[in-house]
Here is the input.
Amino acid sequence: MAGRLMMESGPITGPVVTDATAGETALRSPDLSGVPAKPNPAADELGGTFWRRFAFRRPLAALILQRLGLSVGLLFAVSLMIFGGIEALPGDFATTYLGQSATPQAVENIREDLGLDRPWSERYLSWLGGAVQGDFGTSWASRNSVSEQIGNRLGNSLFLAFFAALISVPLAVGLGMLAVQFRNRLPDKIINVISLAAISLPEFFIGYLLIMFFAVKWGVATFPATVYDSMGFTERLSAIALPVATLVLVVLAHMMRMTRAAILNVMSSAYVETAELKGLGTFRIIARHAAPNAVAPVINVIALNLAYLVVGVVVVEVVFVYPGMGQYMVDAVTVRDMPVVQACGLIFAAFYIFLNMAADILAILANPRLRHPR
Amino acid sequence: MSDYKDYLARQVMLGKMNRREFLGRAAALGIAASTANTLFASSAAAQEPKRGGHLKLGLEGAAATDSRDPAKALSQFMFVVGRNWGDMLVESHPTTGEPVPALAESWEPSADAATWTFTIRKGVKFHDGKELTIDDVIKTLQRHTDEKSESGALGVMKSIKEIKADGDKLVLTLTEGNADLPLLLTDYHLIIQPNGGTDNPDAMIGTGPYKVASFEPGVRATFERNADDWRTDRGYVDSVELIAMNDATARIAALSSGQVHFINRVDPKTVNLLKKAPTVEILNTSGRGHYVFIMHCNTAPFDNNDLRMALKYAMDRETLVQRILGGYGKVGNDFPINDTYALFPEGIEQRAYDPDKAAFHYKKSGHSGPVLLRTSDVAFPGAVDAAVLYQASAKKAGIEIEVKREPGDGYWSNVWNVQPFSTSYWGGRPTQDQMYSTAYLSTADWNDTRFKRPDFDKILLEARSELDEAKRKDMYHTMAMMVRDEGGLILPMFNDFVNAAGKTVKGYVHDIGNDMSNGYVATRVWLDA
Here is the structure.
């Protein structure tokens, strides 16, 4: 949810600045890491020179390799933080899980059974060992394989996120370009007001409004949006219609406004003026000349929103009774089901890291000037 | 008036009212005799259960962490799941709370109530076709009494010393006499499983009216009717679907749009809005659950009985029932028993809000300064509001209560049963003995009021093995008075179980045992399309 809060409250230009700098740091870092202040001949011979040459000849591959390495390190840090966070939470699994109906004997049995009496470092390492091999262990509460359960839930989450993205991304970019073309005229104003209204309403409220009108009053939409294994594809699509609509409304405004701002920014530059003087039409200028140069910040915002569609939709899942990852993780946190929380945390982190990396790489592909830093 | 007419019709449907009584009441309403006759006939006809249909229930309380093993069932959702596929040895009567036969046909106690002989029903088949044997019963009970088990029934079962078969009868020997043993066996964890569930506790194979067709923890469970059910008076619908709906608004939307037939846990704040929907019926049942304010009798300043009395008189119970429960509940009298229990001690005066008496006791206690009350909305729905209302009513008696809102996360491990004055919730227990033994016996694990009285313990243990009901009732009266006038419990209200259903759902049984018709809702209702 933190990402979501940042998007709503932060200045609209915030993410662009942050992410652009992040991209550039990443570009520069091969030099910084490969070349010590005082050249070390041995290191130069062995790895340094090779890496520098490689980074110069294949800047993109070097960038991707480097970001991958960084991502793995980040994931380890995240796993440690999640573990520490849960350790610091009040209450432990045995008492929380059994709740009011626990007896000291039952609590003791569970602790012993799960090895909760072992020191945390030992438990962390044994868990990590499994996770590296793709085995997230067994859920403490249900005693089922975590990997298996997550496979199911993640599938559901991705299914929802995919359709929300499929609709919202083209719509947002299109509307943004439309708003620029009709800048300060009626269509621009309408788009602005509607998107501001949508972004100002909390997502659960949008959800409830949609449920009230489409499910309860008019009875045209399916509710609840519960999906299950034996469900057909079209049935699934009809089940997710309302949550997808909610998500589209929630993320649309952010991407749309960023597209508009970024293109407007470019529109004031000299080459756009040249294009105007050449006598090109407004739409052609926007589509052919301005948009490609505005793509980097837009991609970053889209990546952020895509990540949100996967990891930040807990509230929407709860409101629509949709069995996704968010709901799964919340259930697990409530009873301190460590293996599940850690697995979910890692997967969420992996999504964020991957999407940010993809955004940086795409931004560089779109703007070759970024490939060779000064 | 039409509300009352519906009520009368419903009483007829439930078989609670005969023709003569119905006609009398209808006449009092000014309904013509001929109309009343027709009405009675149609209501009585509706009493005949219909078979068939697909029943959908939207229930709160499911989680991805739910376990298939009935020993580890904790949530409301799994409670209903278990009732659908399994049977216990004994069930409790929906309106009297007395034990009635289930998989045990009959039982016989020894004179000291320490040895019980059960006759196990014959010709009952498990869902996998295997016949129920006494061996399955013994293995099941052994699994739940094992010290190492994680069974939720372990506390209930630990008084069983020996489980054995005597020919085809089951003999249970207890460490001490217990007249309530059959009722203890109604515990929802104690589903009889093939071979006691020792091979595969998660198989969900039982003798219940429905077979499990699919189960996704925290999402959904579906059931098909068990064609070989040993009973004919249940399992009317062909298939059942339980959907996990933890959001209160989602449940209400699903019910009012007709997507589900039944929902549980209707929020008292919205129940009056929901009542206006023409297709919906509110089903509220008096229960044994109660909302409480807990003082530790052994911790200053609550070790002073005058202060405890002052705080008891400072509680405005009527207001709490109206504001916190929306009227769906009954006032409490500072002991954890109400008239839904068998052997309820009658004739105890209802304690009422009395600022003067509160001020008197408060002055006598010699205490000064604010009293710190810790609360959180996880203690019971509306607990924080209740604490603030209490603060206001106590202020009129000159008592200052400081309300501290604690985080809901970790409330049960860090505040309840730890801090000297807090809010909490108790679900009822099948018997008075069990309620007192769980929370008021000196050695009880969950003695959350730190009520430690050897004389109380003595009566409790005597009452446990007393088979003479009149004597037992007397003992329970004495115990209730002790808790009420000297204990650390402030019990302002017993909450009703508030559920709601579409009007096509018929035959709902208001079971005092527990919420959702004691979990049997799906096995007892039928659909009238």
